[in-house]
Amino acid sequence: MTEPAPRPVLVRGASLLGERTADLLLRDGVVAEVGERGSLAAGDARVVDADGLVALPGLVDLHTHLREPGREDAETVLTGSRAAAAGGFTAVLAMANTSPVTDTAEAAERVLDLGRAAGLVDVQPVGAVTHGLAGEELAELGLMARSRARVRVFSDDGRCVANARVMRRALEYVKAFGGVVSQHAQDPDLAGPASCCHEGELSGRLGLPGWPGVAEEVIVARDVMLARHAGSRVHVAHASTAGTVEVLRWARAQGIAVTAEVTPHHLLLTTDLLSGYDPTFKVNPPLRPDEDVEALRAALADGTIDAVATDHAPHARHDKEHAFVDAAFGMVGLETALPVVATTMVATGRMTWADVARTMSTTPAAIAGLAGHGAALVVGAPANLTLVDPTATRVVDRDASVSRSRNNPWHGRELTGAVRATVLRGRPTLLDGELVDPAVG
Amino acid sequence: MRRHLLSVDDVDADEIAALLATATEMHDVQRRQVKKLPALRGRTVINLFFEDSTRTRSSFEIAGKWLSADTVNITGKGSSASKGESLRDTVRTIAAMGVDALVIRHGASGSAQQVAQWVDASVVNAGDGTHEHPSQALLDAYTLQQRMGPLEGRHVVLVGDLTHSRVFRSNVKCLTKLGAEVTAVAPPTLMPSGVEAWSREAGFATSYDLDEVLPKADAVMMLRVQRERMAGGYFPSAREYTVGYGLTRDRLDVLGPDVPICHPGPMNRGLEIAADAADAAQSLVLDQVSAGVAVRMAILYHLLAGEDS
Questions:
Q1: Residue B184, CB half-sphere, CA atoms under 13 Å: how many?
Q2: Does the pLDDT value for residue B81 go beyond 80?
Q3: pLDDT for res B241
Q4: Which terminal residue of chain B, N or C, has fewer Cβ atoms less than 10 Å from its own Cβ?
Q5: Which residue of B has its CA nearest to A196?
């Protein structure tokens, strides 16, 4: 891809991973110089005052739904890219459950091209595991891998690859090109499409169809065994229960190649929010009780869970304004992911900013095979970075969002940590908390 | 009483007592030759039923008519989502016509609570999915009180498909508020999830063994079991369910002739209740239906009458 060289950027006085303060000169898409604070001359560079800000490698989201093609009324690649840049992301993986489904090379290239046209974030398509997400026949995984989109992550997300034979073949097949299957773990016999509330005391009282944690855990347990058998790699999308954490811990100890992500909402929001039947809090997998939230936080802190991924799931208002069981699953999350992690993990002392860089940039980039992302901020590295004000607090206002959708469960909540700037290959996409038009910036 | 009746949670013990006292007066009206009261003249009550219903809908309709309200029935099968119009649009459209009360039955748990946020009219929950059916619980309490006197300290046994029963959820709340001791009986597969914690907190007992509980019952409430539940693996066969949890002829003998039997209907005779039990002298099944009109008159009266006075 040829991009006209952007004006150099001098990031002055940023705290690298919250550890040491330095100046960074970004030129020709890479980190050209790193020096002591105040040591680098601005020259013709645009100066970004990063005093008091933490610099992280640009964030990478393994799990977004950008809705284009098919539901452009909920989100487009462009509006989703804006939300991503505003949230500090420089790369996002766009899930395949669009309409039509991303299950061909052509569909994947189209998403890639829409992302490039938007120019705010690298939009990396995820390919479907099975044709039409039907769970029966493998999609053209190899052709998607060979396409310009170079697809490496495959997922039927929204649905589970429930059939063990199909899952086994997918795990085996993607070995040929270093791919990984990201599994939406939900045994459909234990948690069917109507299941919408964590199965427990609250679902019993509310009379809502339960989604028991074991429906996730049996699939994760099965899939780590299949990954071991196939000698392949499996990734667990949106891990949501303490039982899943136990299985992951065991699988790690066996040396099985399993990685896992947790969403920001499963790190903070709990099932009791459903007591008023507000579909804003309807998400799949469902919000869980405190003990699951605590297990997920501990697992993220100790590395059992590798990454934070948003599962950003925008929905048009009319798809949420139904009776609870009829409303759409999902919540937006790109713009609030970092503040939620900062609030739940950093402000509480459970993680450092270096851990945030690991779980929100370096490791997700490695899982997805994105060579240009997740690199440490050293000379020669791609100039992808995010500047965070670690002490800023703000009350989330859903109407201030740049996403097209408003299904925002964080509305009215105070969160600590604010993304101030995002830089993609040396070009700012967000400065002083405001989006930068790629044609101008 | 609040503006809506969405759940038994909306009424405390005193309000229940007041409602049931009004229901007693209404019941007297019901026995007159001329049954009309002018209380709700000029008021409009819409019965909006998204699910099939015979007794509840006609009961609310008659209750409204005898109070001189203008009552309109609207029925629409299936969820609003499947029809393309959102539930919100449907109820806001109806409310915009200028209604005073919306009596709603919908297959989705929580729907009545959501509707109450969308309209200005009073909302009465006539059954929301597997969540609640508060007017049924109130009429059950009324019926039992008429037969047994105060329910304080009396042991009421609820038996059936508890996990899918809105009647159970409303009744367990209503009966415990009135001081009754409640035991909920079902096979483990038909117990609501998390019932251990719920029952501990709410103060009712649970059992898998009907024969152990039945001799200690002061009243029995049998709940409907849908035959389709067998396909979901909730129990192996109708025969096995009846042997374990049905109110059979033999169990009727254990119960003795003075223990009242309730069933909210519609009954599956031969499955959860034997014909001998359903038609026994101690059966209150038809009393429940009769009380239904009086209790629903009381509910509409408390919600709507005196609002402007």
A1: 27
A2: no
A3: 96
A4: C
A5: B109
Residues of chain B contacting residue A206, judged by C-beta atoms under 8 Å apart: 109-110, 131
Could you give the domains of chain A? Answer: 9-55+380-435 (2.30.40.10), 57-368 (3.20.20.140)
pLDDT of residue B309: 37
pLDDT band at B308 (very low <50, low <70, confident <90, very high): very low
Confirm if A92 and A122 have CB atoms less than 8 A apart: yes
With CB atoms and an 8 Å threshold, state whether B80 touches A205. no
Percent of chain A clearing pLDDT 70 (strictly above):
98
Residues of chain B with Cβ-Cβ distance to A201 below 8 Å are 193-195, 197-198
State yes or no: pLDDT of A369 exceeds 60: yes
- Residue that the structure tokens 């079991």 belong to: B225
DSSP character string of A18-48: TTEEEEEEEETTEEEEEEETT-S--TTSEEE
Separation between Cα atoms, residue A226 and residue A247, nearest integer Å: 13
What six digits make up the tokens of A365?
Answer: 């980039």
Dihedral Cα A40, A45, A51, A57, nearest 10 deg: -90
pLDDT at B231: 78
Q: What is the mean pLDDT of residues A105-126?
A: 98
Adjacency order of strands within the sheet including B70-75: B70-75, B44-49, B101-106, B122-128
Tens-place pLDDT, residues B15-28: 999 999 999 999 99
- A204, A212, A277 ranked by CB distance to B114: nearest: A277
Q: Do B197 and A203 touch (CB under 8 A)?
A: no
Q: How much is the mean pLDDT over chain A? A: 97
Closest chain A residue by Cα to residue B91: A322
Q: Check residue A313 and give its pLDDT.
A: 98
Rounded to whole angstroms, what are the CA distances from B203 to A438, B7, B141, B186? 63, 18, 18, 17
Q: Which domains does chain B have, with CATH numbers?
A: 8-133+289-304 (3.40.50.1370), 134-285 (3.40.50.1370)
pLDDT of B247 over the 70 cut? yes
Question: Which of A201, A203, A323 lies at the smallest CB-CB distance from B79?
Answer: A323
Residue B152, token pair as written in the block = 């304080």
Instruction: Give this complex's ipTM.
Output: 0.92
Residue B75: which H helix or E strand, with range?
strand B70-75
CB contact under 8 A, B87 and A321: yes
Q: Which of A196, A271, A273, A325 to mutate to test the interface with B (most CBs of B within 10 A)?
A: A325
Q: Does residue A47 belong to the interface with chain B, where contact is any CB pair within 8 Å?
A: no
Q: Do A321 and B166 touch (CB under 8 A)?
A: no
